[in-house]
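Researcher: Next entry in the queue.
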Amino acid sequence: MERRDFIRTNCLACLGWSTILTTLTGCISAYYAKQVDFKQNNLIVKKSEFVEIKKDKKIIRNVIVAKYEKLGFPIALFRLGEEQYSAVYLECTHQGNEVQPHGDYLVCEGHGSEFDNKGKVTQGPAEKPLRTFMVKTDQENIYIDLS
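Model: Structure for this entry, 147 residues:
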């Protein structure tokens, strides 16, 4: 095989794999909480929403998304520790696009801004952090204060 053909073949293979991986990553969707309630200006999410049972194994999710019809955008609820959570409003501060959870960080698909699990900007063009909410817990629930 000539050098030119070798380089062209490898470049096409790399491009193909990059496209496939990007497509597969885009297919991974966030888990949307099924047990969300609203009382006294608090969005209430069951802690059990973070637990997933797969093949008799207990897996703890690190992020779930809570939707409430009266909010314009959903809220990402990150599990930071045993009893530590952060709640981040999923509206990008750059141009108002919806931000998507990707593991332990958030990405705005509109212009590529990235945020950590506490809403702080890690990569622009956004310059302001995302809106966050105070979070309290009890034995069964997580309370997101929307005031």
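Model: The mean pLDDT is 84.
Researcher: Noted, moving on.
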